[in-house]
Amino acid sequence: MSTTALQDKVSPSPESQSLRERLVPALPSPAWLGWVVALVVAAFAGALRFIRLGEPAQIYFDETYYAKDAYGLREYGYEHETVENADELLRNGVSHIFAGGGDFVVHPPFGKWLIALGDTVWGLLPVGATFTPTGWRFAAAVFGTLSVLLLVRITQRMTRSIVLGASAGLIMALDGLHFTLSRIAMVDIFLTFWILAGFGCLVIDRDRTRARLAEATEAGRATVNAFTAWWWTVVADAARALAPSQTAAESDEQTGKHAQPGLRERWAAAAAARAEQARSPEEAAVRWLGVRWWRIAAGVCLGLACGTKWTALFYLAAFGLLTVAWDYGARRSVGQRRVWGRWLGYDAIPAFFQMVGTAFVVYLATWSGWLATSGGWGRQWADLTPEVQSYTGFLPGPLREAANALISLGHYHWRMWSFHKDLGEPHDFASQPWDWIIMRVPVAFYYDGEGTDCGATACSDAILSIGTPAIWWLSILACGVMLGWWVTYRDWRAGAALLGVAAGWLPWFAFPQRTMFLFYALPFLPFLVLAIVLMLGLMLGSPGDRPGTSPWSRVVGSVIYGVVMLLIIANFTYLYPVLSAETIPYTEWADRMWFPTWIYGSGGN
Asked: How far, in Å, are 92, 397, 524 from residue 390 at the CA level?
């Protein structure tokens, strides 16, 4: 696949390219055009998500947890218990819904803080009001739109193609799962956004680091390993000091004895040779590449993702391995020898602290509301547990309070983990990971068959949270193509897309007894889309990619590209009424329920 699928001239041969051009191909120009295209696609996605955002005008599905928890965070700094009829009160515009004390929740708070922030912002607008359906869904729509913008820019950078970037954004904008989760007060869209943002930061870091490495190498700023040279010099000097003295050697020569170099002398000579080798230009290499700010930014984003849902931990681990693998490949690409030591000391170990260390600090900060107050569920657990006090009681007051707060937070996390570990309650719309990619059991978020304003005797308005089948089914083929492309050519883009899918999908297979739902698949949707556009890019190619191939191959690729995009648009358009709670005749709703499991869930086998 070409670095620029739209390039109309033959790429220069590797011999005529500079090291920087080979390691970091130029981005599409003009740069402003890429931004304009990204903003146009994002505006289209935003329009889809904001139109009729307040419908249905009530709490539905898991909004009953997340919206009310968000209001508790805004009011108290922690999730708070509510009265039994809180959903009905919110539907009628009543905001006094709290009673009791702190509430036990099973997900970190950051996603709910974003819901509360969105409601606050919506309430500040002239057309908005807080504690309304549009208010508690506002942040989800904003972040859903921004995630489309992110995917466009990331794909543009990875493929060096404006068209492929726009295609990726359009595909995700037209996915039903992404669409429905951008219009409900749940946290999965925030999780997806921060994971994608972290990945984007690492893609930028890859380009910046490879450019810095190429420039330093071409400028001759490579350095020898000072420690290695020093060490072998010390060894040589020590060996010489312990070798026989010069007078002894001269005495042997006068007596006619043939002087043979002793063991220490041979050691000294060998050590001196190693010291000279360590100082030689062949052993020189670019080592420290400076502060990796974009990698630190990725740690921040992934820390916020973990502060939304714990499933982001899989991405933190996967992306941490991915970025250091890119570093290893970059050092090999500039011709460095014996890369392992430099890679481990200058890239891999710092990467752990830059990503995992940063993510941990950020994650802890997402609990600041619970830590800074005293009424949250379990907040006083350490203070009320004598066994804990026996270990912390000797500390000065402020230190004891801080220690007890962190211990209480650890106990809270243990209770959260116990909940998730033991969660196995049956649910009509529960599904297994192998169901997700084929859209076997989507989740019915909302259904109302009482409407009468559709021009028919029976009406339906529904929200079926289902991915656009044309996208998800095509992604199966795309992942297969990416696997073959990576195995054959080790293309880094194919590997990144596959890793993003694997990190979000494969871990769930380890918990077959746990209750799971299709919307758990949302975080790896951007990587499925990336796989699709990379496959389309392979078919489009460019005249300079494959010399000797027929120009008709590009025509065929363009036709396939057009057919795929039209199919996705048509599929989403057809399903749109049952994704957006649009009132339609019952028969039209039934026509869109292709399989019994789309209506009855797992019970519709």
From this structure: 51, 14, 46
Using CA atoms, how far apart are residues 454 and 438, in angstroms rounded to an integer?
31
Q: How many CB atoms lie within 10 A of CB 83?
A: 14
Report CA-CA distances (Å) from 558 to 7, 236, 537, 541, 551: 14, 67, 9, 9, 11
Mind listing the pLDDT tens digit for each residue in 500-515?
999 999 999 999 999 9
State the Cα–Cα distance between residues 201 and 178, nearest whole angstrom: 22
**Contact criterion met (CB below 8 Å) for 87 and 133:** no
Percentage of the chain lying above the pLDDT 70 cut: 85
pLDDT band at residue 3 using 50, 70 and 90 as cut-offs: very low
Nearest C-alpha neighbor of 363 from the set 103, 146, 142, 111: 111
Backbone angles phi, psi at 100, to 5 degrees: 75, -140
Q: How many CB atoms lie within 10 A of CB 417?
A: 12
pTM: 0.89
Q: What angle do CA 35, 479, 548 make, to 5 degrees?
A: 80
Contact between 533 and 154 under an 8 Å Cβ cutoff? The reply is no
Q: Which helix (H) or strand (E) holds 270?
A: helix 263-279
Beta-carbon count within 10 A of 368 CB: 12
Q: What is the mean pLDDT of residues 440-469?
A: 93
SS3 for 105?
coil
Contact 36, 28 (CB under 8 A): no
